[in-house]
Amino acid sequence: MIRDITIGQYYQTKSVIHDLDPRVKLMGTLVFIISLFLGKNVWLYLGATAFLAMVIGLSRVPLKFIIKGLRAVVVLILFSTVFNLFLTEGEVVLTIWKLQITKEGIYTAAFMVVRLMYLIVGSSLMTFTTTPNHLTDGLEKGLGFLKIIKVPVHEIAMMMSIALRFIPILIEETDKIMKAQMARGADFDNGGLIKKAKAMVPILVPLIISAFRRANELAMAMEARCYHGSEGRTKMKPLKYKKNDYIAYIVMFAYLAGMIAIKVLRPGMI
């Protein structure tokens, strides 16, 4: 299960999406997320499916690698499904003891599952195709206008980049600790909820210690290199828009306009 967490990882390959400016990918992710919340409409989700499939194809990231990341949130998806099935009012189609499943609940649960899956896949594609350094540069450049109101954009972007960079490192560290504890006879699969929770203590304690040690080492390394924030810093490779970036902007805003048109013309679920 630990190895199934792929968010924050960068998949190295050569593709059109990888070569795009990080600001374009950040905007594209935002546009895609907005489109998913326009409404509960089959046609809207068909449009989102087509757009997502096109981006996945252009990114050249294997579909198996993308789906692998969904395994880590299966519990969240199942919880959302059950919650919407039994707690949505409407026309009752099935009664189980005191619980009722409604027609509206089935529709809502189906749309919610698809929405969660698309949110995770769409957001993950940004990290799959963008290195942490490029993501930091894109965030800093894209949110640069906030500096006018004294928002520390560079520091915020740096923190987000470091957090994403540490995700795969901590996952690998957790996997090593679990294997070491299993070699000493630890059992993480059998027993009840309380027993499993207690079994996690020998993992969490060394993991937290390791995380603090790595954070301290990173802080000392940054200080040794005279890092003092964005003041007076320049970029070795400043971000510049290319032809493909402008084309990508046109495509994403055409997609958003099309989704809004579908929302206006077909406001119902079907």
Blueprint (SSEs and pairs):
Elements (H helix, E strand, L loop, with lengths): L15 H4 L2 H15 L5 H18 L3 H6 L5 H14 L4 E5 L2 E4 H26 L3 H11 L10 H31 L9 H7 L1 H24 L18 H23 L5
Antiparallel strand pairs: 1-2
Helix pairs in contact: 2-6, 2-7, 2-11, 3-6, 3-11, 5-6, 7-8, 8-10
Enumerate the spans where pLDDT stays under 50 for 5 or more consecutive residues.
Answer: none
**Large-scale geometry:** flat
Q: What is the domain tally? A: 2
Distance between the termini: 37 Å
Order of helices and strands: HHHHHEEHHHHHH
Overall strand count: 2
Largest sheet: 2 strands, antiparallel
Protein structure class: mainly alpha
SS element count, helices: 11
State the share of residues found in helices, binned by percent: 55-70%
Can you list the strand order of the major beta sheet?
1-2
Backbone CA Rg: 22 Å
**Fraction of residues in β-strands:** under 5%
The whole-number mean of residue pLDDT values reads 82
Summarize the structure.
This protein is mainly α. It contains eleven helices and two strands. The chain has two domains: 1-130 and 240-270, no CATH class; 132-237, no CATH class.
Task: List key phrases describing it.
270 residues; mainly alpha; 2 domains; two-stranded antiparallel ribbon; 11 helices; 66% helix; 3% strand; flat
Would you mind describing this structure in some detail?
There is one protein chain. The protein contains eleven helices and two strands. The mean pLDDT is 82. The protein is mainly alpha-helical and 270 residues long. A two-stranded antiparallel sheet has the order 1-2. The longest helix has 31 residues, at 153-183. α2 (22-36) runs parallel beside α11 (243-265) and α8 packs across α10 (201-224). β1 (92-96) and β2 form a beta hairpin. It has two domains: 1-130 and 240-270, no CATH class; 132-237, no CATH class.
